[in-house]
Amino acid sequence: MAETAENGGVAEVIAFAKANHLANLIAIDNTASAHFIEKYTALVENGFDLVSSNKVANTVDFEFYTQLRKTLAENQKRYLYETNVGAGLPLIDTIRLLHLSGENITRIKGVFSGSLSYLFNAFSEENRPFSEVLLEAIDRGYTEPDPREDLSGNDVGRKLLILARELDLHNEFNDVQIENLIPEKLASGDVDNFINRLGELDTTFEKFKKEQDENHVLRYVGELYGDLTHEKGGKLEVKLVSVPKNSALGQVKGSDSIFEIYTESYGENPLVIQGAGAGAAVTARGVFGDILRLAERE
């Protein structure tokens, strides 16, 4: 779709809609393209609402982010992207409603990545080398084709940034402090070379595992905290941590995601949203849910 758009496809779609007097138009972006988001403004200005599982438009520079929302407001159009974080889980909408109602959200913490959730759940509970568990995750299709995309933490960082911006924070991606799990010596080279050298990860991660307190497990988490009432007061961190096995984060199973939302009203008892946070089926259901919400409005 992104390639078609670059070749004039969006202009043709807009022209067709105008020529046939079509109404209640929705443009759906299920790509991961940084180029296709450049077509969003033209679509909105020509009567399209937007539904997107593509995270790029919400994580590029803040100027684009704010200009898009200005264009949406001027044209009385909506942009729904519930699947950007948590796939089909009702996370973004919950955070948005809490914020708009005047609730002071003080912290958001969670396991944002379904692939890394599976990886560290299995590694923490089973007596197997990290490389073996990672290879299993690759074979099951839980990771990106190049698993370094997951292990770098950039995807979790983008999701955390999206939530920060929902709270009207003016952060950029380079504000996110990310613990990259890939050793420098394995960061370059092709995918096959990386997979052939997975065993070089085992010593480091076994050390992490053994240094934990008793009844603790490893989790790769994203955390937003600080003065979230100030546009630049938030701290965004992505890191590998050890948590008690009986805690909310510690009890996550399989490839589930979990998000803890702390507010002034909830105090130290967070609102918890948990479930399948990745996968084609749940993402498709989330996209369809956004389409239905727009259809109901019309």
Automatic annotation (TrEMBL):
Homoserine dehydrogenase catalytic domain: which residues?
A: 90-292
- Which regions span the lipid bilayer? none
* InterPro entries linked: Bifunc_Aspkin/hSer_DH (IPR011147), HDH_cat (IPR001342), HDH_CS (IPR019811), NAD(P)-bd_dom_sf (IPR036291)
PROSITE patterns per the UniProt record, alphabetical: HOMOSER_DHGENASE
Q: Does the keyword Zinc apply?
A: no
The Swiss-Prot or TrEMBL record describes its family as follows: Belongs to the homoserine dehydrogenase family.
What name goes with this protein?
Homoserine dehydrogenase
Q: Which organism is it from?
A: uncultured Flavobacteriia bacterium
